[in-house]
Amino acid sequence: MKRIDIKKVSLAFVLGLMMIGCAEPSPNTKKGALVGAASGAVVSGVTGGNVVKGAAVGAVVGGTVGYISDQ
Question: Is 0.70 topped by the overall pTM?
């Protein structure tokens, strides 16, 4: 079983927080981006992928879902 590099997961989490702090999106968009970034980082870490890229993709997907749910 592959070990998760906690430093990379932490970096991805902090980057996700920084990305949602730059603008004033709606609450669901923020929550979706945060959950997506965390989920993407964890899934990428477990499967052996790039944690930062996984967090970025997760943040975009989660933010988009949150934005759509606000409409």
Answer: no
